[in-house]
Amino acid sequence: MEDDGFVLDSIVTVIDCENFKGYEDTSYTAKMQAQYTDVILLNKHEQVSEQDLDRVIDHVNDLNTDTPKVKSDLHGVSPDLVFGLDTQLFSVAYNKTHSLDEMVFDPKHQENEVDLIQVIQHVHEAASSSSLSKDQLVAFLQTMPKEDIYRIKGFIRLGDSSRLHILNHAFGRHTLTEVEHEETLEEAKDVQVKITVMGQDLRMYFEKVKNGLLQGGQGEAKIIPAHRHDH
Question: What is the pTM of this model?
Answer without folding.
Answer: 0.64
